[in-house]
Amino acid sequence: MRLARRALFAALATLILLAAVSAQTLRPGNDPRNQAPTVGTGGPPGGPTGLFTIYDGDTLRKGEFTFSIAYSNYDRDPGNVDITVVPLSVNVGISDHLELFFSTEGYRGVKVNNPKNLSGFYLPNSQLFFGSTLLGSGPAIILAPDRVSGTSGINGAVFRPAFNQPFVQFPFVGGPGPNFGLTGNRIAPPFTSRLGTPNGGTGNFNAAANFPGVGSPCGSILPGVVLTTRTIPANLTFNTLTVPDLFTICPTYIADAPFINRLYGESAFGTMQAGAKIRFTGPNNPLGVDLVAFYRWYTDKANDFKGFNQLQRGASPGGNMGDIGLIGVVSGRLSRSVNLSANLGYILNSNPQSKAFGTGKVNLLDRPDEIVSGIGFDFPVNKHFQPIAELKSIIYAGGRTPNSFPNNPVDFLGGMRIFPKRWFGFSAWYRLHVNQQGKRIFHDQTFPAGFQESDDPHGFGFQFFAGRRN
To answer: Which of 102, 169, 252, 368 is the most buried (most CB within 10 A)?
Structure first.
């Protein structure tokens, strides 16, 4: 893996050096199409020249630059999650073929509308509403905790009833665990337990650790969720039993904020992204072939209470060493007023790790990698007005912690850009999560009784950008 990363960085450095030595070519003065930075959010980073989230084939020329601030609202599942981001970016032209960029999230707000569908709300420091004022630990499927006293027959995957987990703050280890309703009698002592020390699961790209008493039997710190329960009436051999009815053994999470346990969590500057866009064809060629390479890193890590608290606010996935992405771009000027752009790429995501458990760094979750793709049309009617339409998708791939409610998001964006001058302008768009886990525009999906369906796939955004054009 180290050799592969070094070879990748060496190849990118060579391409950047080759691109930087070329001379500058001015754009045709009668071309109605202008350049503006992407906004990103919910996938590849914003910053490189392009549409809203799709990169086009253009690069800024030497001496050109753009600053951008935007507001982007989009939706993710499971959990009917509504994410609001204020992305900030700058991109700079180094030559006709090379553009550098940097972007960050000046603000991030994550609103969870269906918390029962997300494992983060079942952790020992989390609670769910069971009524307008009744709060308590939710029912979950967990890896058996460490036994302190009582029966030795509780092993493997076990059902933790509601209100059975005492509140324990991160890092959880050594805190009181559930008793599973076994409070003891005249012939049997009560069952007591403690939350165990995690084991296994080290390395930035390896499987997640096991967390006794906390996480699911599938690995990771996240437990399985129990959406509904039922009761078995008492008989001569046992009292009334409550058992899980609709449940998952593996966890459920969103890749953007897997540890979220707030109904509304806020954070700032949790994600940083930097990279380069390299154009291989001539600057005035109607066919643009480009490569976008970037590195994404996170300022919040789960190494202490403060860092994990930020991740539970939805600040980021918290990957330990950051993520590396390569995205190919093909863009064609079909006519004076029609431009087509297509993207296809892969993002290698590192795992969130923590050293707060006293056992060295362990993986809290095995994050999936991302196969990103999209297509976009823009219509430069004149040098002041540019309608835009996009369709983009993310497929989660590679080895990863299983997600019991998986969703590979598909987004449609439609809007416009207005350029009062070539060097500054405004963008506005509508965004639709096409395949939400609920009612859809084109077809409905069947869900089991007790599953909380998503009901708000609608998002929107706007952007202001300004800079310098030759």
So the answer is: 252
Residue 155: count of CB within 10 angstroms of its CB: 9
β-strand pairing of 271-279 with 98-112: antiparallel
Cα 417 from Cα 177, distance rounded (Å): 55
Backbone angles phi, psi at 352, to 5 degrees: -75, 130
Tens of pLDDT, residues 163-208: 999 999 999 999 999 999 888 888 889 999 999 999 999 999 999 9
DSSP three-state, residue 16: helix
User: What whole-number distance in Å separates Cα of residue 361 and Cα of residue 200?
Assistant: 10
pLDDT band of residue 277 (cuts 50, 70, 90) is very high
Look at the alpha carbons of 212, 218, 220, 221 in this order and tell me if their dihedral is positive or negative. Answer: negative
Model-wide pTM > 0.70: yes
At 19, the pLDDT band (50, 70, 90 cuts) reads very low
Cis bond before residue 286 (omega within 30° of 0):
no
pLDDT at 129: 84
Q: In sequence order, what E strands does 19-152 have?
A: 65-76, 81-95, 98-112, 128-129, 135-136, 140-143, 146-149
What SS3 class is residue 207?
A: coil
Q: How far apart are CA 116 and CA 100, in angstroms?
A: 42
pLDDT grade for 387, boundaries at 50, 70 and 90: very high
Q: Taking the CA atoms of the chain, what radius of gyration do you get in angstroms?
A: 25
3-state secondary structure of 306: helix
Cα-based torsion angle of the residue sequence 462, 418, 425, 374 in order, rounded to the nearest 10 degrees: 60
| Cα(53)–Cα(46) distance, integer angstroms | 7
CA dihedral (431, 434, 436, 440) in degrees, to 10, reads: 120
Buried b (16+ CB within 10 A) or exposed e, 304-329: eeebbbbbbbbbbbbbbebbbbbbeb
Provide the token pair at 352.
């969130």
